Amino acid sequence: LSSRTSAAEKEMGGAEQREKQYQAHQGSGDHRGGVTGAHTYFYADETKCDQHMETFLRCIDASSGSSEDGFSAIKLTALARPQFLVQFSEVLVKWRRFFLQMATEQGQAGRTVLEMKLEVEKLQEALANLGIVSKAESQEWFRGESLGTGGTVDLLDWNSLFDSRTKISKPLLIPNRKAGQLEPLLSRFSKEEDLQMKRMLQRMDVLAKRAMEKGVRLMVDAEQSYFQPAISRLTVETQRRFNRNQAIIFNTYQCYLKEAYDNVTGDVELSRREGWHFGTKLVRGAYMEQERERAAQMGYEDPINPTYEKTNEMYHRCLDYVLEEIKHRRKATVMVATHNEDTVKFTLRRMMELGIHPSEKKVCFGQLLGMCDQITFPLGQAGFPVYKYVPYGPVNEVLPYLSRRAQENRGFMQRANRERDLLWKEVKRRLLAGNLFS
Fold first, then answer.
1. ∠ CA(20), CA(25), CA(27), 5° rounding?
2. Which residues form the Proline dehydrogenase domain (predicted)?
3. Residue 62 shares a structural domain with residue 179
4. What domain count does the chain have?
């Protein structure tokens, strides 16, 4: 019993510490500081967001005209006020923490998040004892949502419950263990934030409809971890609507995050239950230095895996899970966005073992334009769907992005030297054969 209590306290202590990650911080509104990589946006006003949406619409049109089954990437920080995303992320993390608290008190510390299941009777008693809601009221919650019919509630059921409870006028109170009192879950979620949510969803709706009309897949880029819970939640809402028959909307998972596997498995399980197609791009990650600096300044646990090798393990673990999902249901699609040759080889081997043929187009690959052509071209020639990711914009903004990509891929310069040697070898071969330009 003592070890179980200790584990529960450790679990909850970590959850409360992680919550700091999503609190307001100087620079969260304009989050470009310290980022020399992926382009990020500073919120000016709603008009600017509409202008960004128009730019994304033109990109969708361009993708449609340049290739079949194309992709167009968007960033949600371009479509709403970034501070809203931080606030919404904080709310989502508090609700998840509340679930973890209940689970650890029911003796489930140490399980994976999806394995945690709350017994409904005990949950209702706990809610009543905490003074959050009477047992009769909580019974009405579950009847209204048809949850807990098997006597238990998991995290996905819990999130569904959150959707319905936030639509009522009565503030939802949850316990703050540190303060030892109840606090409103939506204490910082004003009418303006509610409008921000609606505007962002409207813009995503416009983009998704254009993408569907043009035969283009829409890829929502991942951003800093303190925005990501909100970005992922909004992306899933769009997937629920548009991925009924095929994967049109793709979410991005950054595998340098310690929680990447939990995020992937949770969303895959949700897609299974609701019957929509899961679409994902897997990347290693782009904001390592800024993430670690912010964690140190604000005193929360570094969200990044400690080593490059751990990130590789996480990438392959997430990828293997999605490939297994493709094998069993054929209702998932993954873009393996990597410049890492070992990861490409791992993917090809697992596809062969699982019987996933390239012609199904359930697995595709992506590299940046101008980088790692020695990976891209052989994949294309072998019949695999492979894409070049094309950054665009002013040179002074695009060059730092490209330099960051070179920096984040260990061994990139060695591969660049190898690519140069291969190209020079081909030039000499053609010169000797007398067909330089064929």
1. 145
2. 118-415
3. no
4. 3
